[in-house]
Amino acid sequence: MESQVRGGTRWKRFAVVMVPSVAATACIGVALAQGALAASFSVSGQSFKVSADKLEGKGFAQYGAIDSGYTMDGKKTAHPVAVSAFKSAEITNLCQSVVTPDVPIFGSVSLILKAGGGDKPVEADNIYIDVADLQADAVFNNIDIGVAAKDAAKGPGMKGGGEQANPYGFAQQADSATLTDVKQTAWATTAGTFKLSGLHMSLATGAKECY
Asked: For the segment 103-116, what is each residue's pLDDT rounded down to a tens digit?
């Protein structure tokens, strides 16, 4: 069975593109560009934006959770998210951006990352991303909607660790998924490996984002 979901539908917000957080990638970008590297990170108390021309992933699962963290001034935060996971994914023309406001002297400062252009897409394995909002055209193959989160066996399994999620809560899964024209807001990512071909990072003053 193939289930196709187009950009005008509301539940497309719970689809996924799998990418690392901008702040973590800024620290380890060279290593990621040269090869695979395990990663677990979030942007402290900040969401980040992501765009991509295309995501092709295998082994998809998704369930609800609460993402907890701290703002830059030490205040605790919590956000409802859709945790979306793939066993593996390839991402074409990835762009990530995060804006840090109120930087002394400069005001807002934007960090922008681009990778996966041409015939060398970004490659990732065992990825979990906490999604707040997503717009995309999506095709899911052999999708099961309404399974318990703990029983979503097509994906890499629940994240575990300090994750705040109900293993008996609503979930969905699919053998594979293809997303195009992706625009996403996310809070955090955990992954086994990332490989960013053609990595380019830049800093700019003011609010400059991928979309």
From this structure: 899 999 999 999 99
CB 43 within 8 A of CB 187: yes
Rounded-to-5 percentages of helix, strand, coil across the chain: 10, 60, 30
**Residue 137 is part of which domain span?**
2-94+115-147+170-200
Q: Residue 108: inside a domain, yes or no?
A: no
In the chain, how many domains are there? 1
Flag whether the pTM goes above 0.85.
no
d(CA 146, CA 144): 7
Residue 21 domain flag:
yes
Q: How far is CA 9 from the centre of its chain?
A: 20
How high does pLDDT run on average in the chain? 83
What does the radius of gyration of the chain's CA atoms come to, in whole angstroms?
16
Q: How far is CA 23 from CA 59, 109, 148, 152, 163, in A?
A: 27, 12, 33, 30, 21
